[in-house]
Design a protein that fits this description.
The protein is mainly alpha-helical. 77% of the residues lie in helices and 0% in strands. The chain is built from 21 helices and no strands.
Length: 553
């Protein structure tokens, strides 16, 4: 059988990326469905562990600082894997990488079902990070095959957004998974997703890609410097609030070593003729501005992952009571993605990002009046707004980044993938570390203020203590012990109120920061309009039309 010869418009855009043949409609549907499966697998496995970290901590017998290493291990490998995986794909092909990664991931998950210790859990999360790093790219490539050429930018939007649904979906699924068994069900579900994805990509593989020799010895030097530097930084951000920033000397040494290693990697890359990461392109004003805005918005979106969920945990809510809330967040997020795709305008791609930030402002201030009667229903509207804003922002930011990357040349693709991954992952970690630290500090402040007004001579305080003691009068007969228990109950109530007030301060902080980011966005748009700069997407479309015209001649 003769080998199929690709037409000029069907050839791969970059080495390591698949060809783009004209598929029949039914095959495009299958590519779309497999893309959705891959995207969910890439994020849901780790999300199931992250949203049930307290449960895993108890069943595995871990301390708080040990359980934090589970998420840290995931981010360590997820952020740095693309440094080499993109070139691996270009030199050895995409399919071998995906099969080996998913196979190793499934084997590690299966092993964890029978070996229950801390280090095995860390290994599973680390392998999950590597797999998710490759699966995010694979998701986009499968959506590329599902879309006709004029809709390829929509494929980018959908492909980068699908994995972001993992966290709210995990909060929807995990209560039932834990009802049917213990924490093993989380890993069985994760194993099932990995095996289903492996079967899908083997059954309907991507079209072949062009390969070329791309690895250089200095690539591994850069990786050996940059990867440990990022790992140390992630370790500090993950453990800082738990062990506290100034109480552990190792954090200071780790942060200093991280800065030194990252700086050394940048120096090596800056002096290379064919760098792994193009530092000169990354240092341009447009790219730095895009990544700064993307990281800033990711910090603000931590209001959902830390703020609303944390507050509901304080008032006694767990994932079982938040199912409806998270279903609403999922639906709102899908609506945000649909809005981004259907209202996409190449000449004004920055406007939806500013609109997303304004929605975060509104939602944050809506949440800032919580009290001890606040329940998940109180967050339906505000969290729907943030869910809508999250995918509206992410889809547009990815399109802008891809457009600037292709305009600067395909050789900058690795640089963009690495920097965008770092900006989003590190932005989430920084956001969580910033907001959680601020919440702890404000809780101490409010607790001090509340305690100042609690004196035993106050009739209201004495009545609250008697009421607390009366609640246990049927089981505690000693009046002195009942009074002590009443005092302890009052102390718990004060701590709860202090935490609620602290979370209100967190929401206000996010709102103020979002206003500043929105003003910054308006200033950027005004500056671009004043200079008469065209949108990078418009410039890319013009360049593609020019190239097609030259091919036609």
């Amino acid at each position: 059988m003769a080998e199929y010869v690709f037409k000029p418009h069907e050839k791969p855009t970059l080495p390591g990326s698949p060809a783009n043949p004209d598929h029949p409609s039914h095959r495009r549907v299958f590519y779309f469905l497999i893309g959705c499966l891959i995207g969910i697998t890439g994020g849901l496995g780790n999300a199931l562990v992250t949203v049930n970290l307290n449960f895993a901590q108890g069943t595995l017998g871990l301390n708080s600082n040990e359980s934090a290493w589970l998420t840290a291990a995931y981010f360590m490998t997820n952020v740095t894997a693309n440094l080499l995986l993109v070139k691996y794909r270009q030199q050895f092909g995409l399919q071998p990488f995906i099969r080996y990664t998913l196979g190793a991931y499934a084997a590690t998950t299966l092993l964890h079902l029978f070996i229950h210790d801390f280090w095995t859990s860390v290994a599973v999360r680390a392998m999950s990070g590597v797999a998710a790093s490759g699966l995010t790219t694979l998701t986009i490539l499968y959506f590329f095959q599902a879309m006709p050429a004029p809709k390829r930018l929509a494929a980018v939007m959908i492909g980068i957004s699908i994995p972001q649904l993992a966290s709210p979906l995990a909060r929807v699924f995990s209560p039932r998974l834990l009802e049917w068994g213990d924490w093993h069900n989380l890993y069985w579900f994760e194993l099932g997703l990995a095996l289903a994805t492996l079967a899908a990509v083997v059954t309907l593989p991507l079209p072949p890609s062009e390969r070329e020799e791309v690895f250089e010895p200095l690539d591994f030097l850069t990786f050996s410097l940059l990867a440990p530097g990022l790992w140390l930084l992630i370790a500090v951000l993950s453990e800082g609030r738990i062990e506290w920033w100034t109480d552990r000397a190792w954090m200071g040494w780790a942060l200093a070593a991280s800065i030194a290693l990252i700086a050394a990697a940048v120096i090596v890359e800056h002096r290379r003729a064919n760098p792994l990461i193009n530092t000169r392109w990354l240092a341009t004003r447009e790219v730095l501005r895009l990544m700064a805005v993307a990281a800033s918005v990711r910090v603000l979106l931590s209001e959902q992952a830390f703020g609303s969920v944390g507050l509901l945990n304080v008032v006694g809510m767990i994932n079982d009571q938040m199912v409806v809330l998270n279903v609403i967040v999922v639906l709102a997020s899908i609506a945000g993605l649909a809005t981004a795709v259907l209202t996409f305008r190449p000449d004004n791609v920055a406007r939806p990002i500013t609109f997303a930030v304004i929605l975060i402002v509104i939602a944050s201030f809506m949440d800032a009046d919580a009290n001890n009667l606040t329940r998940p229903s109180s967050f339906y509207i505000s969290q729907a707004l943030i869910g809508f804003a999250s995918l509206l922002f992410l889809a547009q930011a990815m399109v802008i980044g891809i457009a600037r990357t292709l305009l600067a040349g395909g050789r900058n693709f690795i640089s963009f993938v690495v920097l965008f991954s770092v900006s989003q992952s590190m932005g989430g970690l920084v956001g969580n570390a910033l907001l959680s630290t601020f919440q702890v500090m404000r809780e101490k402040f409010h607790s001090h203020e509340l305690v100042q007004h609690i004196v035993m001579t106050d009739p209201l305080v004495a009545a609250r203590i008697r009421a607390g003691g009366g609640a246990i009068a049927g089981v505690v007969g000693d009046p002195a012990l009942r009074s002590a228990q009443g005092t302890a109950i009052l102390a718990q109530q004060v701590a709860r109120e202090a935490n609620i007030l602290a979370f209100n301060d967190v929401f206000l902080l996010v709102g103020v920061l979002a206003i500043l980011v929105a003003l910054w966005g308006f200033a950027i748009r005004w500056s671009i309009r004043r200079r008469g700069e065209k949108s990078p997407v418009v410039l890319l479309q013009q360049a593609m039309q020019k190239a097609q015209a030259q091919q036609g001649q």
